[in-house]
Amino acid sequence: MKCVYCGKEFEPNSNVQKYCSAECREKAYATVEGKTKICPCCGTEFKPRYPIQKYCSRQCGRRAGDAREYERRKNGYVPEPVKLIVWSPARRKCLNCGAEFVEHFSGDKFCSDDCCWNYYRYEIKLAIYKVLKDKLLCK
User: Fold this and answer.
1) pLDDT digits (tens, 9 = 90+) for 18-59
2) C-alpha 77 chain-centroid distance
3) Residue 18 main-chain phi, psi, to 5 deg
4) Cα distances (angstroms) measured from residue 132 to each of 9, 45, 123, 127, 136
5) SS3 of 125, please?
């Protein structure tokens, strides 16, 4: 492939690489400052910010993109439908009572709020008991 700036042959690292080196890319971007282009959408003259800029504004770029999409669909193009990943609820066992339940949110551990409260209430009591037991036995 030939470098767009200096014309030297080079092996590109990706399919979008246009310049043989970062130096050539920077030089090419620097030369854009003095040049002007004509917007193919609205016909106004503008100074591009980078070498590959085609349109004077985002609005013109969007308008041109919409026109291209319109033409593609008019010629029979039908876009593929978007595939959504659907979350399916799993069956789980409640950590407190052992009952089987269908989870409402990913990662549910309890069949109800009461079971959750009872479980953590028991865990807190157990932790307090262990602390008090250690303190009473140390004395």
Assistant:
1) 899 998 888 877 766 668 889 999 999 988 888 788 999 999
2) 26
3) -115, -20
4) 79, 82, 14, 9, 6
5) helix
